[in-house]
Amino acid sequence: MKHFLIAPSILSANFAKLGEDITDVISAGADLLHFDVMDNHYVPNLSIGSMVLQSLRNYGISIPIDVHLMAKPIDGLISDFASVGATYISFHPETTKHIDRSLQLIKEHGCKAGLVFNPSTTLSCLEYVIHKIDMITLMSVNPGFSGQSFIPIILKKISQTRKLIENSNYNINLAVDGGINIKNIRSILEAGANTFIMGSAIFGSPNYYDTIHMIRSVLSN
Ligand code: DX5
Ligand code: ZN
To answer: Model pTM?
Structure first.
Protein backbone atom coordinates (compact mmCIF):
# COMPACT_ATOMS: atom_id res chain seq x y z
CA MET A 1 0.00 0.00 0.00
CA LYS A 2 1.22 3.50 -0.76
CA HIS A 3 1.87 5.77 2.17
CA PHE A 4 -1.29 7.73 1.33
CA LEU A 5 -4.13 7.64 -1.17
CA ILE A 6 -5.81 10.56 -2.89
CA ALA A 7 -9.44 9.76 -3.61
CA PRO A 8 -11.33 12.32 -5.72
CA SER A 9 -15.04 12.32 -4.93
CA ILE A 10 -16.93 12.31 -8.21
CA LEU A 11 -19.92 14.04 -6.64
CA SER A 12 -18.14 17.26 -7.64
CA ALA A 13 -17.33 16.09 -11.17
CA ASN A 14 -19.07 17.34 -14.30
CA PHE A 15 -21.93 14.87 -14.77
CA ALA A 16 -22.49 16.07 -18.33
CA LYS A 17 -19.11 14.54 -19.27
CA LEU A 18 -18.44 12.18 -16.40
CA GLY A 19 -16.29 9.59 -18.22
CA GLU A 20 -13.98 12.26 -19.62
CA ASP A 21 -13.75 14.16 -16.36
CA ILE A 22 -12.85 10.99 -14.47
CA THR A 23 -10.30 9.98 -17.11
CA ASP A 24 -8.68 13.38 -16.60
CA VAL A 25 -8.54 13.05 -12.83
CA ILE A 26 -7.02 9.58 -13.16
CA SER A 27 -4.34 10.85 -15.55
CA ALA A 28 -3.71 13.61 -13.04
CA GLY A 29 -2.76 10.97 -10.44
CA ALA A 30 -5.86 9.87 -8.51
CA ASP A 31 -5.29 6.63 -6.56
CA LEU A 32 -8.89 5.68 -5.82
CA LEU A 33 -12.24 7.06 -6.97
CA HIS A 34 -14.91 7.89 -4.43
CA PHE A 35 -18.47 7.26 -5.66
CA ASP A 36 -21.19 8.87 -3.50
CA VAL A 37 -24.59 7.17 -3.50
CA MET A 38 -27.34 9.34 -1.94
CA ASP A 39 -31.00 8.39 -1.67
CA ASN A 40 -32.80 11.56 -0.48
CA HIS A 41 -33.90 9.56 2.55
CA TYR A 42 -30.88 8.74 4.68
CA VAL A 43 -29.35 12.01 3.42
CA PRO A 44 -31.14 15.04 1.98
CA ASN A 45 -29.76 14.70 -1.53
CA LEU A 46 -30.09 12.35 -4.49
CA SER A 47 -27.13 11.26 -6.59
CA ILE A 48 -26.25 8.21 -8.66
CA GLY A 49 -26.81 4.46 -8.67
CA SER A 50 -25.16 1.29 -9.93
CA MET A 51 -26.04 1.94 -13.60
CA VAL A 52 -23.61 4.84 -13.55
CA LEU A 53 -20.85 2.68 -12.07
CA GLN A 54 -21.54 0.07 -14.73
CA SER A 55 -21.28 2.71 -17.47
CA LEU A 56 -17.98 3.96 -16.08
CA ARG A 57 -16.52 0.44 -15.99
CA ASN A 58 -17.78 -0.18 -19.54
CA TYR A 59 -16.20 3.11 -20.60
CA GLY A 60 -12.85 1.72 -19.43
CA ILE A 61 -12.42 3.25 -15.98
CA SER A 62 -10.41 0.52 -14.28
CA ILE A 63 -8.94 2.07 -11.12
CA PRO A 64 -10.25 1.02 -7.70
CA ILE A 65 -13.60 2.58 -6.78
CA ASP A 66 -14.94 3.07 -3.28
CA VAL A 67 -18.74 3.15 -3.29
CA HIS A 68 -19.91 5.28 -0.37
CA LEU A 69 -23.49 4.27 0.36
CA MET A 70 -25.54 7.04 1.97
CA ALA A 71 -28.77 5.14 1.52
CA LYS A 72 -31.12 2.87 3.36
CA PRO A 73 -31.63 -0.10 3.21
CA ILE A 74 -28.31 -1.27 1.80
CA ASP A 75 -28.17 -5.03 1.32
CA GLY A 76 -29.75 -4.91 -2.16
CA LEU A 77 -27.45 -2.06 -3.13
CA ILE A 78 -24.40 -4.02 -1.97
CA SER A 79 -25.24 -6.81 -4.43
CA ASP A 80 -25.99 -4.32 -7.22
CA PHE A 81 -22.74 -2.41 -6.83
CA ALA A 82 -20.63 -5.52 -6.32
CA SER A 83 -21.93 -6.99 -9.57
CA VAL A 84 -20.90 -3.94 -11.61
CA GLY A 85 -17.35 -3.59 -10.34
CA ALA A 86 -17.17 -1.84 -6.97
CA THR A 87 -13.79 -2.35 -5.29
CA TYR A 88 -14.74 -1.12 -1.84
CA ILE A 89 -18.28 -0.84 -0.55
CA SER A 90 -18.56 1.46 2.45
CA PHE A 91 -21.69 2.03 4.49
CA HIS A 92 -22.87 3.85 7.61
CA PRO A 93 -23.63 1.49 10.53
CA GLU A 94 -27.03 3.12 11.14
CA THR A 95 -28.24 2.20 7.64
CA THR A 96 -28.46 -1.54 8.28
CA LYS A 97 -30.23 -3.61 10.87
CA HIS A 98 -27.36 -6.13 10.89
CA ILE A 99 -23.91 -4.65 10.49
CA ASP A 100 -22.11 -7.97 10.58
CA ARG A 101 -24.44 -9.46 7.97
CA SER A 102 -23.97 -6.52 5.59
CA LEU A 103 -20.17 -6.74 5.99
CA GLN A 104 -20.37 -10.47 5.33
CA LEU A 105 -22.38 -9.82 2.18
CA ILE A 106 -19.74 -7.42 0.87
CA LYS A 107 -17.04 -10.03 1.49
CA GLU A 108 -19.05 -12.81 -0.12
CA HIS A 109 -19.16 -10.70 -3.27
CA GLY A 110 -15.36 -10.41 -3.19
CA CYS A 111 -15.30 -6.68 -2.42
CA LYS A 112 -13.46 -4.83 0.29
CA ALA A 113 -15.58 -3.57 3.15
CA GLY A 114 -15.72 -0.14 4.72
CA LEU A 115 -17.60 1.47 7.58
CA VAL A 116 -18.32 5.20 7.56
CA PHE A 117 -18.90 7.22 10.72
CA ASN A 118 -20.81 10.49 10.81
CA PRO A 119 -19.23 13.33 12.80
CA SER A 120 -21.20 12.52 15.95
CA THR A 121 -21.26 8.72 15.63
CA THR A 122 -19.02 6.78 17.99
CA LEU A 123 -16.76 3.97 16.86
CA SER A 124 -18.16 1.51 19.38
CA CYS A 125 -19.61 -0.86 16.77
CA LEU A 126 -16.09 -1.63 15.57
CA GLU A 127 -15.33 -3.69 18.64
CA TYR A 128 -16.78 -6.90 17.23
CA VAL A 129 -16.35 -6.34 13.50
CA ILE A 130 -12.97 -4.67 13.09
CA HIS A 131 -11.47 -7.89 11.70
CA LYS A 132 -13.91 -7.68 8.78
CA ILE A 133 -13.06 -4.12 7.77
CA ASP A 134 -10.62 -2.90 5.10
CA MET A 135 -11.33 0.81 5.46
CA ILE A 136 -12.72 3.14 8.10
CA THR A 137 -14.01 6.47 6.81
CA LEU A 138 -14.56 9.35 9.17
CA MET A 139 -17.01 11.97 7.93
CA SER A 140 -15.67 15.43 8.61
CA VAL A 141 -18.91 17.04 7.39
CA ASN A 142 -22.49 15.88 7.74
CA PRO A 143 -23.14 13.65 4.73
CA GLY A 144 -25.19 14.88 1.81
CA PHE A 145 -23.29 17.61 0.01
CA SER A 146 -19.87 18.51 -1.25
CA GLY A 147 -18.34 21.91 -0.57
CA GLN A 148 -19.00 22.02 3.20
CA SER A 149 -16.43 23.06 5.82
CA PHE A 150 -14.28 20.57 7.71
CA ILE A 151 -15.45 20.07 11.31
CA PRO A 152 -12.27 20.63 13.38
CA ILE A 153 -13.01 18.23 16.25
CA ILE A 154 -12.73 15.36 13.78
CA LEU A 155 -8.95 15.74 14.03
CA LYS A 156 -9.23 14.29 17.52
CA LYS A 157 -11.40 11.44 16.22
CA ILE A 158 -8.82 10.69 13.52
CA SER A 159 -6.06 10.31 16.13
CA GLN A 160 -8.25 8.10 18.29
CA THR A 161 -9.14 5.93 15.31
CA ARG A 162 -5.51 5.65 14.25
CA LYS A 163 -4.63 4.35 17.73
CA LEU A 164 -7.48 1.88 17.58
CA ILE A 165 -6.26 0.57 14.21
CA GLU A 166 -2.70 0.27 15.48
CA ASN A 167 -3.82 -1.61 18.56
CA SER A 168 -5.87 -3.98 16.41
CA ASN A 169 -2.87 -4.95 14.25
CA TYR A 170 -5.13 -5.14 11.19
CA ASN A 171 -4.23 -3.48 7.92
CA ILE A 172 -7.03 -0.92 7.66
CA ASN A 173 -7.13 2.27 5.59
CA LEU A 174 -8.16 5.34 7.51
CA ALA A 175 -10.04 7.72 5.22
CA VAL A 176 -11.47 11.16 5.90
CA ASP A 177 -14.37 12.53 3.86
CA GLY A 178 -15.54 16.14 3.68
CA GLY A 179 -14.09 19.63 3.58
CA ILE A 180 -10.49 18.61 2.86
CA ASN A 181 -8.41 21.21 1.05
CA ILE A 182 -4.80 22.10 0.46
CA LYS A 183 -4.69 24.17 3.66
CA ASN A 184 -5.98 21.57 6.12
CA ILE A 185 -4.80 18.31 4.53
CA ARG A 186 -1.46 18.31 6.32
CA SER A 187 -3.13 18.41 9.76
CA ILE A 188 -5.40 15.54 8.69
CA LEU A 189 -2.35 13.48 7.69
CA GLU A 190 -0.60 14.31 10.95
CA ALA A 191 -3.66 13.25 12.93
CA GLY A 192 -3.31 9.79 11.34
CA ALA A 193 -5.34 9.57 8.12
CA ASN A 194 -3.85 7.90 5.04
CA THR A 195 -6.73 8.25 2.55
CA PHE A 196 -8.00 11.68 1.55
CA ILE A 197 -11.41 11.94 -0.08
CA MET A 198 -11.70 15.25 -1.88
CA GLY A 199 -14.53 16.56 -4.02
CA SER A 200 -14.65 20.29 -4.61
CA ALA A 201 -10.95 20.88 -3.86
CA ILE A 202 -10.01 18.70 -6.85
CA PHE A 203 -12.91 18.92 -9.31
CA GLY A 204 -13.43 22.61 -8.58
CA SER A 205 -9.82 23.40 -9.42
CA PRO A 206 -8.76 24.60 -12.88
CA ASN A 207 -6.04 21.96 -13.40
CA TYR A 208 -6.38 18.52 -11.79
CA TYR A 209 -2.75 17.59 -12.41
CA ASP A 210 -1.41 20.72 -10.71
CA THR A 211 -3.81 20.30 -7.80
CA ILE A 212 -2.99 16.64 -7.16
CA HIS A 213 0.70 17.34 -7.58
CA MET A 214 0.44 20.14 -5.02
CA ILE A 215 -1.50 17.90 -2.62
CA ARG A 216 1.19 15.20 -2.91
CA SER A 217 3.96 17.65 -2.19
CA VAL A 218 2.12 19.02 0.87
CA LEU A 219 1.64 15.44 2.12
CA SER A 220 5.23 14.40 1.43
CA ASN A 221 7.03 17.35 3.03
C1 DX5 B 1 -20.46 14.23 1.33
C2 DX5 B 1 -19.75 13.21 0.47
C3 DX5 B 1 -18.36 13.59 0.12
C4 DX5 B 1 -18.27 14.87 -0.68
C5 DX5 B 1 -16.96 15.51 -0.36
O6 DX5 B 1 -21.60 13.68 1.85
O7 DX5 B 1 -19.71 11.96 1.13
O8 DX5 B 1 -17.65 12.54 -0.48
O9 DX5 B 1 -18.36 14.63 -2.06
O10 DX5 B 1 -16.89 16.74 -1.00
P11 DX5 B 1 -15.97 17.91 -0.46
O12 DX5 B 1 -14.54 17.40 -0.55
O13 DX5 B 1 -16.23 19.03 -1.41
O14 DX5 B 1 -16.35 18.20 0.94
ZN1 ZN C 1 -18.44 10.42 0.34
So the answer is: 0.98
